[in-house]
Amino acid sequence: MNTIDAEQAIVDVVIIGAGAAGLSLLLALDEQQYTGTVKVLEQRSGPQNDRIWSFWHSNAVPSYIESIISHKWSTWSLMTEQGHYSMEHCFYQYCSVRSEQLSALAAERTSRQANFDIVFDCDIASVNVEDDGFIITTANETLLARQVIDTRPPALSSKHQGLLQCFYGEEIRLDAGVFEPSTVKLMDQLRSSALGIEFVYVLPFSANHALVEFTCFSIDIIDKQTLKKRFAQIIKTIVKQHDYEVVRIEHAVLPMYSIDQNRHNSQRDLIYGGIAGGAMRTATGYSFLSSQRWAKKCASALTQRTKLDATALAPINSLYQKMDAIMLTVLRTDMKIGVTIFERLFRRVKAERFARFMTEQATFFDILSVIWVMPKWVFLRAAFSSFFTLSALSNKKNQR
Fold this sequence. Notes:
Layout: E1 10-16, H1 20-31, E2 38-41, E3 52-56, H2 63-66, E4 71-73, E5 75-79, E6 84-88, E7 94-98, H3 99-111, E8 116-119, E9 124-130, E10 133-138, E11 142-150, E12 163-174, E13 183-192, E14 197-206, E15 209-218, H4 224-239, E16 244-256, E17 271-272, H5 288-303, H6 318-333, H7 337-348, H8 351-358, H9 364-372, H10 376-399
Parallel strand pairs: 1-2, 1-11, 2-8, 5-13, 11-17
Antiparallel strand pairs: 3-7, 4-7, 5-6, 9-10, 10-11, 12-15, 12-16, 13-14, 14-15
Helix pairs in contact: 1-3, 1-5, 6-10, 8-9
């Protein structure tokens, strides 16, 4: 490794990105008492209060994540023009973690470990593979790393075969009590429109404090101004004549299609995590618990000094990937049927089965109950379409 100055830092593990996946891996390494040196490199200038990650509680939640859950709700609901439906469960509660709390926990754990470090305001110029490691060049230094895990979000593709989750929301406070604090409105005012499948998402922290988002599942990117305009119409109906204070804003376009950059990675020793590593459920947009499972497996391999295997680290089981692919085929073919599908899930599937399915911990009977409520013909047609598409891709790959 003579391409790096002898005075430059040698690090065992470099994690690129201090988002949910990167910090979760750092915390998992701390939990498993990793003794090597770890450095997290983050482009942003410092910890951000810009995200709330939500998930259904399960046995997969690590104890350190449990300690920073800001809110839990036992009831979550869906509302369409046809009716209002809700699910309730005391164990499989809907939970939220704020990005600032995850950052604070990671900073606190790092301060106690001389071998851990988080570097903000750090632009990565290049990552080059050497015979027995990586050379990472930043604006301020050059690092030699034995292992690099890249958790930066991937660029959006215009040629995807799924959907995009586009949303704009505001966390607001007002003097009047307009929210029902015991219930998350998971998909309120659910309907199909020219934009796609749209709904309102409400996380109520109290009667007068909530995160409200306008969300749309669409094939194409919906620009921020369009989303913001729809949000403005919706928020008026919620707060009515009351004035409110905007605490912060959330806006993003998330991929709801298959992404796993580890499969197409020519630099085989470089591992991708988070959304880039396939942590997002393509049919739902949830990724936080998947990232926790991935972080635990990745930390275990690093602690045991075994070579990281991207296939073994896959955060989502192939069964869920295939079921999600079929769902996306159905929705892309006919967006209107999406309202019927979500409505049937809430009407006919028990809360605990629904939660286990959403957290990739479903039993055989859970999966069967979910399949049973689906419109049979359209899903069979989509299943055949997905099968032949996968077969064609496999044959094309084998011919290369």
